[in-house]
Amino acid sequence: MAFAVLRPAAGALCRNDDALPASAGNPLGLLAAKLDLHAPLSDVDRRAIMGLPYGLRTLEASDYVVREGEPPVECAILITGFAYRHKLTSGGRRQIISLHIPGEPLDFQHLFLGVADHNIQMVTRGVVALVPRAAFRALVHSNPPVATAIIASILVESSMFREWLLNLGQRDARSRMAHILCEFAMRMQANGLEIGDDYELPINQEQFGDALGLSTVHVNRTLKLLEADGLIVRTKRHIAFPSWDRIRRAGDFNDRYLHLRDRQPDPEQVGARR
Amino acid sequence: MAFAVLRPAAGALCRNDDALPASAGNPLGLLAAKLDLHAPLSDVDRRAIMGLPYGLRTLEASDYVVREGEPPVECAILITGFAYRHKLTSGGRRQIISLHIPGEPLDFQHLFLGVADHNIQMVTRGVVALVPRAAFRALVHSNPPVATAIIASILVESSMFREWLLNLGQRDARSRMAHILCEFAMRMQANGLEIGDDYELPINQEQFGDALGLSTVHVNRTLKLLEADGLIVRTKRHIAFPSWDRIRRAGDFNDRYLHLRDRQPDPEQVGARR
DNA sequence: CGATCCTTTGATATGCGTCAAGCATTGTGG
DNA sequence: CCACAATGCTTGACGCATATCAAAGGATCG
């Protein structure tokens, strides 16, 4: 599904039919906040990000944002809703690679590549901001603090891929599932999105299975196992953790790989002019 | 194992006890060649890379290059020998994340992060060039073509992590193994390292198992299965493919994710000044 | 030329997949 | 507002791919 390119004047806001978060006079403010998590940005840097040209687009559940094999042109930022990244085997089996929450850039992984090597699809209905890729690349080449933040965000995402590899390759179903539940909760919280003691998992059990490398049936059984063990409480897709410490241990979850506490020092101080 | 920082004058060559490839008057030439695979570099750019300050160090098999939890300071480039990236569960199970061949940068994944989130260890004895991380970061911030190549190389590595996720999550042992054998052969070849019709797999079966998420026993059985099916011929650790097409199909191997044929256009032409 | 590491093989166990069917929930159109 | 379709969840029975345990050969190297 190729979508038309909307490219309004820089900084202009295209209101759309979906409600946007109150915080966002400019929806790219969400991205600026997210990038600031990885490397501190000055007001000037933030303005540079929010000054990027963009268009808003509402997508339905299961709409494609990126399709494998196509050349990336627009770089999508998720504003509302959830999305996921996946790859398919030639036999049609699907592996979900990552799950994305509002504010996250969806396509930095293709920023400097010529062809998309995986798909990105909406989990739910939502809004994305489409920024011409060239604008981001120009920023990377001209604004060192923003470049640092963008690259750090790419690297943190890669780190998450690595942790998922460990998860798939070495942990059993129970631990694997607990791990991802922890990761999701922690990321929601770090991005200021968790509302109370529980959160709603936006995916169904089939999708969960494709993220975990498990069959749907086994996902169901493992969920019930975690529940029976008192590690989670479920109502529909809402998950609560009676004890963070217990679920954390069950999932062998150590948040180091999310790099939430190692913001880079200001790049002004790390240039090689020693 | 923290190692002392060697930092000779820029461009100076520290001859070491190990034989270096004939091509390399300057061992960083290997890196320049590798980066040029991802984005075209001019002679000036190449010289900028080869002008980076570095120190050479010979490491023994199983020596650590990077250790999880430590702050990255030096950025290692593999000059000779093989290395691998891995993570451990708290229970001590090891997942190998990637396997590295001469010429490859080992630590770009930590270039803009404050703490290492995984380990890198030598598979064999070999030589690494250690470049101060700040020097690479300065280059990223000052030299757009080189920045493009470095970031592209990071992104291709991430793409490989994604493919490995698909491999671990969705393919059975036979296909998974065939896939990695294909990948390794293709990368060796793309980097000008394959010598004939066969190549030597530098790892033992236990390590292979940890890369595939399989037990050592099952690695052995799967190797013999591939052999019995005529997909590979083995003598010790040497692997040959009687038919590239058959092993490729068995491994569901499509090299798109390696991005060998989509070098970026010269970044001079992609700035956002439209 | 013994010690160590690596590979190979057999026997047995198990975690998870697959198949199949029923149940619950949600949305939709008459 | 009800009926029914579509989608997602749950459960049982069974099979298989892969793990684990154990031990015997090779290879390699000081």
What overall geometry of chain A do the principal axes of the alpha carbons give? globular
In what order do the strands lie side by side in the largest sheet of chain A? 2-6-4-5
Give the oligomeric state of the chains in this entry, treating copies of one chain as homo and distinct chains as hetero. Answer: homodimer
Largest interface: A-B, 68 and 69 residues
Strand count, sense and barrel status of the largest sheet of chain A are: 4 strands, antiparallel
Helix percent of chain A reads 25-40%
Our Rg estimate of chain A from Cα atoms comes to 19 Å
Which structural class matches the secondary elements of chain A? Answer: alpha+beta
Which whole number gives the mean pLDDT of chain A? Answer: 87
For the record, give the distance between the C-alpha atoms at the N and C termini of chain A, rounded to a whole number. Answer: 50 Å
**Count of individual beta strands of chain A:** 10
Q: Helical stretch count of chain A?
A: 8
Strand content of chain A: 15-25%
- Taken in chain order, the helices and strands of chain A follow as HHEEEEEEEHHHEHHEEH
Low-confidence stretches of chain A: 1-24, 266-274
